[in-house]
Amino acid sequence: MRLNAGIPEGPIADKWTAYRSAAKLVNPNNKRKLDIIVVGTGLAGASAAATLGQLGYNVKVFCYQDTPRRAHSIAAQGGINAAKNYPNDGDSVYRLFYDTIKGGDYRSREANVYRLAEVSNQIIDLCVAQGVPFAREYGGLLTNRSFGGAQVSRTFYARGQTGQQLLLGAYSALSRQIDAGNVTLYNRRDVLDMVLVEGKARGIIARNLVTGAIERFAAHAVVLATGGYGNVFYLSTNAMGSNVSPAWSAYKKGALFGNPSFTQIHPTCIPVHGEFQSKLTLMSESLRNDGRIWVPAYKKDVDRLRSKEVKPSDIPDSDRDYYLERRYPAFGNLVPRDVASRAAKERCDAGYGVSSTGFAVFLDFADAIKRKGQGTIDALYGNLFQMYEQIVADSPYETPMMIYPAVHYTMGGLWVDYELMTTVPGLYAIGECNFSDHGANRLGASALMQGLADGYFILPATISNYLAAEIHTPRFDPDSSEFTLAAEKVRERLVRLKNTGGKQSVDHYHRQLGRLMWENCGMARSQPGLEEALERLPLLREEFHANVRIPGSLDEYNPELEKAWRVADFLELGELMVRDALQRRESCGGHFREEYQTPDGEALRNDEDFTFVGAWEYKGKSCAAELHREDLNFEVVKPSQRSYK
Amino acid sequence: MNYTLKIWRQKSAKERGEMVSYQVSDISAEISFFEMLDILNQQLIAEGGDPVAFDHDCREGICGTCSLYINGRPHGPVRGVTTCQLHMRSFSDGEVIHIEPWRSKAFPVVRDLVVDRSALDLIIQAGGYVSVNSGGIPDANTIPVPKHHADTAFDAAACIGCGACVAACPNAAAMLFVSAKVSHLSLLPQGRAEAVKRVQKMVARMDELGFGNCSNTYACEVECPKLISVTNIARMNREFLSAKLFSEKEKIVRDSI
To answer: Among A242, A332, B162, B232, which one is least packed by beta carbons within 10 Å?
Structure first.
């Protein structure tokens, strides 16, 4: 298969305008005759469904939650980037583009990233018009803060709840379209399969989570906005229900999966505390604006800290190692996430971790409180401090936070072309669900930007180019043979899972999978570790299918059954991630192969052999997936070794 | 630590429910309330029983999915947090903990502790938005908003839509929820243009859906995990009243033509 991203000709700054001028349109009378399914109601899904409804298409939107407002975009804290240059500190569309390409360690597509930077400003305008209460100056205008990987302040924020406020904005736009009858909402639905008719995406099979009914829905196009797959690691900052299943079913129906191993490990999360822990909580990257990260410089202090003989404040400045400031003087505590995470791991592996488990570093606000006053710090981070205190029963105003990296975001996802279409015609993937814009590492405050860019502006413009040829296609009959067959297969798989009749719970296997992925395909990867994982994963999968126990029945509200389906897919995805990590014999961004590093421990890229997107094709149950390459051509930015020194 | 749990079990909306007792032991004070329920469910699965269904998702206090009356209080004993942010250190060893679903006519039980809160979505759909499309928007900084207006609007916009206010209210009123959205949007210049229509439509929808009336007990504010203030209710009442006056004035203008 030859992958064609369909990037428009011309200079980079003109590509998107040129594309939009040439793209085919659908007239309003015909839009009413066209159905679009949107799966997921996070920033990407809600904004896409709202905009497509506003344009006049017939939209059906699905979410597994009880209401669209709960999608996990709601938990994003820090902010959203845009190239407004309101602070007049030298920002521009080009600079946002450049920082994002560099931050992604030169593994993303230039044309997509430029377009993202280009529409970033429109997002802020729209959100403000919707009533999103961004932070403001006393003069009434919007204010910005800085974020990792940039030397300008281009991040708009709403206290530590930016994702919540943006999602509620998109949810309000969606609610307006639901009330107008342009969008129909299907909540508490798990989407379990894609239906293809003559090679084109024409619908989905869903399970009604309340009644257990298997339902069929047909449409002229299907849009997946189902988020990331970080829960493959069991412990992550994702919501408990976040899953890969709709995207995985698309993969099995012919959509290629791009860069599955590219995972973001976020540097500032609350450390793991015990065996029964169910999830990890992020502390916003914005805290690194004012917090200073350190561990003791001497081992003797480490021991005294762990045994609680001394408090962190007892250790004088001269005996502390502010290792990010030491190693990266130009960016200091604001280096990109992958760099900050690896540096924390390096210190803890060397024995300088400050908690009883040995896996934690300090994030200290004492200097900032002295400099700015407690009131200012409270206004900036109050809700985060409160959240931290509630979890660990310690006040960050008095003692430094303890943090450690945790799985947070997946840059990999379904491969899409410039139009955000997967390799299955009529099947689109937007937001975190696709692989496209962040390369091997995402910069902070860029996920919200990408989700909304895709949903409000990019997909609505590109989908008409496909649907223009579909105006003569009548509505599909969800009782046709393709739908019947797909529904039967879903039911069979559910029955098989339910009837396994084993002894162990779903969580038992999920936890084992998570540990295996974290240790062998997490922050540092090596050939022996990955090969070991490749041997163990099929065994774990077999054991799961032989020995899992699912209580209850198929035809009722059954959360264990939902989990079982998701974990079964994670068990397959894990293997693809490991294969991808194994084939990429270089280090780049969040993908760190121990064999490939510079003498001072930085990621060592191999541009000659690996400047490509690894896109995997499903070849059936018993065959290994096949790798296809989309070569990345850098016409504007010259790849160089990333330096934040 | 050890606890006795008395949990509401109900197979479906149509069947009758009852309180059932369970024991959990060796629970660490550091784990969360939901992690304690996870342990109970693992225990039940191992014994061949039916795990307890409860709503939860982000487990960091922001998505609003979790609910639960714990010892008769929405979101449990700690002020300003959701159930998912509760930790077992807030309970004492040997304590009997009563766990029930939200009790309100507008929130029917789905199963065990899970309720259907889609009525709240229907209220937002009636008008909880600014009617703008995604094109032709002026630059964000063309609309200055005084900082204290923006901050007050934010305080109201922090609502997570969990329904604790309805659960706490003796009349099962949704006034705090509705007023938070009305306040958020009417405090901002962007939301003023349709403020009159918005408050009327949202209040009418709230009444249709079977929520009760406000009798100023302020239980909603006490139990709100996001500490949304009842001054929002006062603001909504003012908006509602002036909307009534305005539309009558409008009628007079029309009649005189």
So the answer is: A332
How far apart CA A248 and CA A227 sit, in angstroms, is: 12
Last residue in a domain, options B111, B145, B173: B111
Integer-rounded Cα Rg, in Å, for chain A is 24
- CB distance B137–A125 less than 8 Å? yes
The DSSP string of B143-201 is S---HHHHHHHHHHHT-----HHHHH-TT-B-HHHHHHHHHHHHTSHHHHTTHHHHHHH
From chain B, pick out residues whose CB is under 8 angstroms from the CB of A68: 121
Residues of A in contact with B11 (CB under 8 A): 556
Q: Are B46 and B145 within one domain? A: no
Q: Measured between alpha carbons, how far is A245 from A576 in angstroms, rounded to an integer?
A: 14
Please tell me whether the overall predicted TM-score, pTM, comes out greater than 0.90 for this model. yes
Domain boundary among B65, B93, B111: B111
Query: What are the tens digits of pLDDT across the range A178-221?
Result: 999 999 999 999 999 999 999 999 999 999 999 999 999 999 99
The domain that contains B64 carries what CATH number? Answer: 3.10.20.30
Taking CB atoms and an 8 Å cutoff, what residues of chain A touch B121?
67-69, 175, 185, 187
A224, A41 in Cβ contact below 8 A?
no
Give A546-571 pLDDT, tens digit per residue.
Answer: 999 999 999 999 999 999 999 999 99
SS3 (DSSP) at A343: helix
Q: Which of A402, A407, A401, A404 is nearest to A442 (CA)?
A: A407
Nearest to A64 by CA among A562, A614, A601: A562
Q: Which chain B residues are within 8 Å of A552, Cβ to Cβ?
A: 50
Q: Compare all CA atoms of chain B with the CA of A553 and give the residue at the minimum distance.
A: B50
CB proximity list for A439: less than 8 A, separation 6 or greater = A101, A103, A104, A105, A106, A107, A108, A262, A411, A588, A589
* pLDDT beyond 90 at A380: no
Measured distance CA(A26)–CA(A35) in Å, rounded = 13
Angle at A239 between CA A576 and CA B77, to 5 degrees: 155
A125–B35 CB contact, under 8 Å: no
Catalytic residue list of A: 337
**Residues B42, A165: C-beta atoms closer than 8 Å:** no
**Are the beta carbons of B87 and A390 separated by less than 8 Å?**
yes
Residue B197, domain CATH? 1.10.1060.10
Q: What is the tens place of the pLDDT at every residue in B112-153?
A: 999 999 999 999 999 999 999 999 999 999 999 999 999 999
Contact assessment for residue A107 and residue A589, using Cβ atoms and an 8 Å cutoff: yes
Q: What are A98-128's pLDDT values in tens digits?
A: 999 999 999 999 999 999 999 999 999 999 9
pLDDT at B253 over 80: no
With CA atoms as reference, report the closest residue to A379 among A369, A389, A388: A369
Handedness of CA A365, A369, A375, A377 (dihedral sign): negative
Tokens of A280: 């990890």
A72, A133, A273 member nearest B30 (Cβ): A273
Show the domain range for B90: 3-111
Name the burial class of residue A608, with classes exposed (0-12), middle (13-18) and buried (19+) by CB atoms within 10 angstroms of its CB: exposed
